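Marked as duplicate of an earlier ticket. Keeping the data here for the record.
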Amino acid sequence: MSLLGGIRPPIAALSALLLALAALTAFQLGHVGRETVPPAVLTSQQYFAEDGAIALRASLDESITDIGRTASLFSSGEPVSPDSVLDKLGSVYQKWRGTAVIEIKSGRLEAQRGENLPLTALDLTALDGESGLAPRMVRLENGETRLLTLALLSWPDRPQQLLVASSSLKVPGVSLGKSRAIAVLDSSGQVLGSDGVGGSGQEKKQLAKFAKTVAQKAARHPLQAKEPGSGGFAGVSGSLLGDSSGGHRSVAGYAKLTGSQPGVGTDATALGLTVVSFVGVAEERSAAVDSFFWIAASAALLVVGALAVALLVTTVQRPLLRLFLESRRIGRGDLNRPVTVPKYGEAARIGAALDRLRRQLLGEPAGEPAAETEGPRGGRRARIGTRALLGVCGILLLVWSAPLLLTLNRAGASVTVPRTIVDDQRERTDTLADRVRRALNEGHADLTSVASVISGKTTPADLTKLLERTRNQHGRYESLYVLNADGTVLARAGGKPHHPAGQGPSKQPVTLVDSGNRPVITEYAEATGLAGAAVVGELRIDFLNALLKRPGLGEVRVVDAEHRVIGGNNGYLAFAPLSDAKLDALVSAANEKSAANEKSAADEKSGADQKPDKGPRAKSALLRDGGVAIAAAAPMTGGGVAQPLDWTVVTRQPAKGLEIPAYTAQNRTVLAGLLGLTGAVACLGWIHIIVVRPLRDLARRAEALAGGDRRTVVYPTHHDEVGAVTRSLEVIRLQLLEQRKRDAAGGSTGRTPGRATPAGRN
């Protein structure tokens, strides 16, 4: 017999699987809700730090690009004074703490704006090196760190100058809420900048501990720091548990600055910075499901599994092994004892056929079964087959698996979601809204920078070259063009303009139009050098949607003042209303101008946080209709040209995907039921394919042989118990053929074939 063939291996495998599943259910799956901090809270802090790292990297790269492009624009035009360079730079961008122009040859400071820069830290003789103009970090006398960004100003017949801008290393536009702190670390774990860290020594001490651990973890390779196939953030990120005090524990998330594409670095990522954020959460150790449930489920599985295995052993395995022994006995010629016929299934049919073949070997003619094999017992054999017995075993195991799969341990609409996760949804949505606002403002600042160098002397060819260079430096534009006061396009780069023909530039710096159910975001920057003209940039809607793709926020939508959808992180219908009325009400509540003492209808129904305020602010809510979900709405506040748009970012995340005790218990319950069902189907299917189907075919051939078919060869399919019975039947068939030949030979010599002696029939 083959090693894996026969009836024993699948039954043994089923027994082992059920025992393993019972142990897993009792000792492993029941460990739910015993953590003081749910894993979902840790994951949320990791996402928060990743948002900060993305915002910081984008801000630094944008600043570095802006300085380089501004210097290039000035260098390509007529020479201007250092004061004019800094004045125009400050009027277009308000992002740097200090700017300066230095004559490289003499080292003389030509002009300066803002805070004093640590110019002595610059080696002007090494600017022509490979990384001479690379951004660098310097520490001031007061202990703060600044990032210096450099660019060259070059005009013919004039000394070359160095444009320097300094910025603080703080995460821009991240909403921290009340109790969160965020910091920027260098590769050694030293704090370069922080926000939200109080004056208490406890918070600073906790930050120092986190910084030391994060510095070690951030040094790892991104592929080694993440689970295979995890996707999401391309760099190193994670979460940490801090000290516990007074029932609260500090929870931190960290993320190292990385490029938008895996393996593709930027000037900002070369600085080796890491963002770490931490917040205090209340510790709560409470199991979502009593351990008695898992112990009871394990005990029930042992009982049900024992019944199923016992049924298989008594009704399938033992009769088949008995048939194997009986068939081998008959094949050896031991015909004195009748065959012990099983009670049920195909084994009963084969046993009855074997007994008939035994009598035929003793001289009884082939034909219908003897009278003693007929009656109620034979009818019962015909009705109950081995497949029915397998079905009964499957039903027994399904009785245990089905409730776990469908009904038990369901979280329901009353599930408790940690307040920290709801707050994080609100703050992350607010951060995302600020990120969209900053992107629109930066785009308009870029256009303003281009418009500042255009004059009446600029030729259309120069305009086209300037627009092409700007479009290549920034991937946010679908189309760039210079629009004259009469609506004439003087030069363009990229796609066809959507601005109405014959109309001059809009007075609004940012507009939104519906171009065939496709949102077109258009920005206008007045070109003072051309009377009434403007530089116009049409943003790619994919650029806006790419900003919204952040894990852990669920479905993200940007809606306009009329609550129509403008963009999203997944499929949406442009200018369609929000799909949920509660989300629409939440947007209205977030944009209320005053919410001093009254709660909005949306907050009363959905449980949104409500605090007195004097203007629009981000709000969050737990929506419990149609499944629990965490929703948040954040209007784009903070100023800039994007402010008049009155856009709002809305997020909605189903709570069932969170690793909180209630859903973890539900998922593990479903997993236990699924494992039980899979094991039952696999093992019972194994028995059906290897044993039941060959056994049914063998029963048919055994009955045909007992009925007188001596010509059909009976050959085995598998080398197992069924195959052994098949081989014995073939031996019996050959014996019957030999008996027929002897009887025919005896008849030809005048002998009359006699029946078996009475002794042979005992």
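See parent ticket for discussion. The longest helix spans residues 661-706.
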